[in-house]
Write a structure and sequence with these properties.
By secondary structure, the chain is of the alpha+beta class. It has four helices and eight strands; from the N terminus they run αβαββββββααβ. 58% of the residues lie in helices and 19% in strands. The strands form two sheets. A five-stranded antiparallel beta sheet has the order 3-2-7-1-8. The chain has a three-stranded antiparallel beta sheet with strand order 4-5-6, with helices on one face. Strand 2 and strand 3 form a beta hairpin. Keywords: Coiled coil.
Length: 243
């Protein structure tokens, strides 16, 4: 009886061991399958996220490349247009210089013709008859004549005077001066002595031209003419009226 009981117990224990082993095997298979399934799902999930990010990164990269190409194209257009603008500015500058030169020449000719009002610094020369000398019977030897006035006027023009007037009467390129006894006639208008000759120009230059040794001043003084010169900060001359 005891031997039979032991055998039955052994069979029962052995059966339980087989069942336990089967249970463990099934549980192990289930755990392994679950782990494998989880890895596969995570892998697919990661691949899906990575692919979406890659597509987004690629799209942004393409946009950046397109913007850089557009920027380079616009820069090249800007450089080209800037170069053309500089060429246009050079042409306009040349034209402006030409027009300015023409305007300056026209203004200078109008000044010489006496057709415009002018003002500026200059000098004022006064020519007066010399003192009467009883020993000198010829009165013409101490009177101011037209050639005395001509010497002063010509020297002033040669020295760069832009405008000249005698006793306030403006001279032009067509002016004439005639001596008639104690008076001179300028363009048909008579003027008594003293004869005040005004000239607009560089005062030091005009003064030096008249005062140089052996020049106009010395010649007039030798002819008994009273010569005085004064520098002026401002001289105003009106235009010549009439035709």
């Amino acid at each position: 009886m005891k031997k039979k009981g032991r055998k039955a117990l052994k069979k029962k224990v052995k059966g339980n061991q087989v069942i336990f082993s089967l249970v463990c095997l099934v549980l192990g298979f289930i755990m392994a399958f679950s782990y494998h399934l989880t890895r596969v799902e995570n892998k697919h999930k990661n691949e899906a996220v990575t692919g979406s990010q890659y597509e987004k990164t690629l799209d942004l990269r393409n946009q950046l490349i397109a913007l850089e190409e557009t920027n380079r194209r616009l820069q090249n257009e800007y450089i080209t247009k800037q170069s053309k603008m500089r060429e246009i500015e050079k042409e306009l500058s040349k034209e402006e210089e030409g027009y300015s030169s023409i305007a300056a020449e026209a203004e200078k000719y109008r000044m010489f013709l006496g057709k415009m009002k002018v003002k500026g610094p200059g000098i004022q020369v006064s020519l007066q008859d010399g003192e009467y000398d009883p020993k000198n019977e010829n009165i013409n030897n101490y009177l101011v004549h037209e050639y005395h006035v001509f010497k002063v006027v010509n020297e002033l023009y040669i020295s760069g005077a832009s405008a000249v007037a005698i006793n306030g009467q403006r001279l032009s390129s067509r002016s004439y001066i005639v001596c008639n006894g104690p008076v001179i006639t300028v363009d048909g208008k008579q003027h008594p002595a003293p004869f005040v000759i005004s000239a607009i120009g560089d005062p030091p230059v005009l003064e030096q031209a008249l005062n140089m040794s052996g020049g106009v001043k010395d010649q007039l003084v030798n002819d008994n003419i009273v010569f005085t010169l004064e520098k002026k900060d401002l001289i105003l001359m009106n235009p010549i009226l009439g035709s």
